[in-house]
Amino acid sequence: VAIGSLSDDGDFRKGNNTTAMPTDEKMTKKLHSENSETYYNLLKYLPNGIVSLSHLWDYVQEKCLDEKHFAEEFQALPSGPQLPTNIALHPENRKKNRYKDLYAYDVNRVQLKPLGNDESDYINASFVD
């Protein structure tokens, strides 16, 4: 545990030195939304679901007390395509999809150089950053 104080800019002061701690370690969290003037101070878990690594074990232990928590959290995750997959679903491209439920998104699909016909530029592959 570090002993010190916070400067006005939110940096942790230890002795005469000022060191910027990672965001999740800062003692003061200011979270504003357009409709709220809410000020959060000394939060372990942020309202948007982010848990800092230093609090992860405590978070898991606390949530394990409710045996339904992780199942409900998992069910709340989005499933299925989150973006359009129209090109993958064209009749001429369907046979090129290895799986019946996994398609390349239109916005980040890999486009091949056409081999003479317009339908030869499709492969079920996506660019990933």
TrEMBL record:
GO terms for molecular function: protein tyrosine phosphatase activity. This is protein-tyrosine-phosphatase. InterPro entries: Prot-tyrosine_phosphatase-like (IPR029021), Protein-Tyr_Phosphatase (IPR050348), PTP_cat (IPR000242). Residues 1-30 are annotated as: Disordered. It comes from the Eukaryota. Belongs to the protein-tyrosine phosphatase family. Keywords: Hydrolase, Protein phosphatase. Residues 70-129 form the Tyrosine-protein phosphatase domain. It holds the Pfam family Y_phosphatase. Its EC number is 3.1.3.48.
